[in-house]
Every structure is written in structure tokens, then in C-alpha cells.
Protein: UDP-N-acetylglucosamine 1-carboxyvinyltransferase
Organism: Aquibacillus rhizosphaerae
Amino acid sequence: MDKIIVRGGRQLTGTVKVEGAKNAVLPVITASLIASEGKSVINDVPALADVYTIKEVLSNMNANVRFENNTVTVDASEPLTTEAPMEYVRKMRASVLVLGPLLARYGHAKVAMPGGCAIGSRPIDLHLKGFEAMGAKVHVGNGFVEVHAEGRLQGAKIYLDVPSVGATENIMMAAALAEGRTILENCAKEPEIVDLANFLNKMGARVIGAGTETIKIDGVEKLTGAEHTIIPDRIEAGTFMVAAAITGGNVLVRGAELEHMRSLVSKMEEMGVKISEEVDGLRVIGPKNLKATDLKTLPHPGFPTDMQSQMMALMLNAKGTSVITETVFENRFMHVEEFRRMNAKIKIEGRSVIVEGPVTLQGAEVAATDLRAGAALILAGLTAEGYTRVTELKHLDRGYVDLTEKLAQLGADIERVNDEDIVIVDATEKQQTSAS
Ligand SMILES: CC(=O)N[C@H]1[C@@H](OP(=O)(O)OP(=O)(O)OC[C@H]2O[C@@H](n3ccc(=O)[nH]c3=O)[C@H](O)[C@@H]2O)O[C@H](CO)[C@@H](O)[C@@H]1O
Ligand SMILES: C=C(OP(=O)(O)O)C(=O)O
């Protein structure tokens, strides 16, 4: 089993480049299934475990998919099967995004029902309600969800109870080939939604309003493969911004888009971090003393839940009491217990946590309970005394490319090792070990 070992105390400096966004590339790759003609060429694709998983999903459905040098090409012009293999849906919830494309093109799709996960129950009822409103029949049973439509889907007016990112994407893709106009209200406004709409439009779809709370889609008869470059990953960028801030460092995060990250930038500035826009990214300079603040996660343009745990690591180093309220996922505080192993003073009260800082964090063995929890524990390790060992890296590999190497290049004392190779113990740790 791999572990990441980090020793705190180094200031990070230099430049780091952001990859293409995981949450944009997954829907864009699934959207390429709609094209009954031509090849799609998708650039700036990060080499993430999730991308390899979605590639396998598509290949198993008879699409011809290649992934080389950060470019994915998809040729879906041969007839496809309309069932996604269960093993992949288990690995990655975003596999449910094949439902909309397959339903649009073939009037049928079947996938394993995605389970709950560490951060909450994550139902897909809103995706299914949207399909039903367009005339599809939905059957859920024996661990599968199956959707059917007789003839073309029909454009419809659909109001989402909550602005779900996945439901907005799935419905937008299904509506691309529906007969007539679909109006999707209270939809998600994330930059990744805009990226998907741009790709669909390049394929010949007619989607307007992406990025606002109402999206209108006029269905067309067919879509053709297109070329597209994925937007930068705002969550990876944010993770490096926190790494710079937490170590009092000075880092240029190349590719970070201010427009996609206003809520994060403004919170970090409230904490005393200096952030300035440069031609090719954002420069982040950490202050000597960080100030406490409060934040509430919300759908975009509110504060992103995917940056909540990393900000908690920053707050542990800030002077005063900070409060985080998580409103998007009901169980996204699994990292709190792990931070406590590192001497953090955090209380959970319902959907809020109260963080007292600054504390002297102590290195410990901690588990990455989910993707962003893993990143947050590494960030905390950058300021902790002694060694922090982060385990359960499978989550982290879903969302970060070469995180260890990139942080090491910025000056962090960090390495990824296989369990059996671990022999190093520093002086502090030897003392702790012999004292215990
Ligand atoms: C691959 C991808 O893009 N993942 C992102 C996407 O996940 P994902 O698309 O799964 O997240 P959603 O926006 O759908 O979920 C937001 C909230 O809506 C609820 N909900 C969602 C669908 C539904 O049918 N019914 C329902 O009740 C969820 O339980 C959750 O409480 O957006 C999340 C919220 O920004 C991010 O944390 C994830 O990183
Ligand atoms: C929760 C996340 O992703 P996913 O929806 O792929 O689980 C995330 O990126 O933080």
C-alpha cells in the first residue's frame, strides 16, 4: 500500500501548473458518446484514475477511446451497447453521466445504481425526474437503474429542487437530441457546466444560458464529434493556493482562473493571504499570521464544498475561532477525526464545525477518507511537527495528478512510498517512539 509522508516546516516557493479539471473532463468524455458521426478530440485531459475509469466504461460500450499525451480521442460512431459495467460505476459515481447521452441517442440506458459514499448519500433522483419529464420511463431495481424512451425524448420544462451539478449535466446531454425545447430551471452554474455546454455546442447542439440558473436546449437530430480543450481545475488550483498560504510561501499557480474562484480568493484574502492576478495565473503569498474566518459551502458561485477540508487545514493555522458550515453534503466532515489525531482542536455541531487556532499540529498516521480529505491532511502535514503519513491514497489518485511531485518541486519535504519501503524515522520521532 502506498503512503505519502510529509514533514512540515518548509515554505513553498516557485511555480506550479494546474491540470485540466476532473469535474469538466468526465462529463465531456461521456458527452462524446452522443456523436453518431466523427471523432471527438479532447485536450488538456489530466492523467487521473477517474479518467482511466471513464475510458474503460466507454471502451466496454464499444466506443473507440485512446488516451495519449493528455489528449483523449473518442470515436463513438459504431453501434454502442447501452449498459455500463457495474464494476466501474462502483469505482466512480460520475459513471452515471452515461445515462443522458445513451438515452438521447438510443432511447435506452442501464447502469448500476451508484452507492452512497464517504461524503453523503448522493442520490440521483433529480437526474431521473428530468428524464421522466422528457418522456422516459425509469425502472430502479436489483441494484440497477434503467431508462427507456419510445422514440425521441420530448423537450420539457424542468425545475431542479436543488442545483445539482450531475443532474444539470445529464439532463442537458439528454435534451441535446430531444424533440423541441427543454428549459432547465434552478440548474447548477459551475464553470464545468459551461465547459460541457461549450463542447455540446461545438458538436452541433443548441444550448444557451449555461452558467446562469436557466438553461435552454433546443434539440437537434444528431451530434458530430468535435475538438475541445478542458478548463483548468479550480479545485487543484485552490489546493496549491492553500499550500502556499499555509506555509507562508510565495507561489504562482499557473492556469488558475480568477473568474472561477472568486469565493475562495475572497475568503483567503479575509484570512490575510495576498493574491494577485498575473498574465498566466494567480500569485499567492502567505502572511506571517493568518486570521480566523467563517465560511459556508454553497453551489457555485458560493464557496465550493470541494475546497472545504483544505480550508479547514488553513484555519487550524489561523489565529482565533473559525466556523465552517457544510450545506452541500450531509457527511463531509470525516477529515475532522483525522485532524484531531494531529492535535487539532475542532468541535462538530450539526452541519458546522468550530475550529480553534492556531494549534501546533503534530505529525501522525492519518487516513484520506475521501479525495479532498486526503489533500487537506497533506496540507496540514506541511505545517505539522515531525512526519505525517497519509494512507488510503486511492481517493487522492482519483483527483490529483502527481500531487507529491508537484509539492516537492515547490520545496515541500514530501515523498510517496510503498509501505514496505518505510524505514526513515527522524530524531523527534525516535524520541516520541521511545517515550511511548
Ligand atoms: C464529478 C463531479 O462533477 N463531482 C462534483 C459534483 O458532484 P455531483 O454532481 O454528484 O453533486 P451534486 O451537485 O449533484 O450534489 C449536490 C447536492 O444535491 C443532492 N442531490 C444531487 C442529485 C440528485 O439527484 N439528488 C440530490 O438530492 C446531493 O445529495 C448533494 O447534497 O458536484 C459536487 C457539488 O459541487 C462536487 O462536490 C463534486 O466534486
Ligand atoms: C467529491 C468529489 O468528486 P466526485 O463527485 O467525483 O466524488 C470531489 O472532486 O471532491
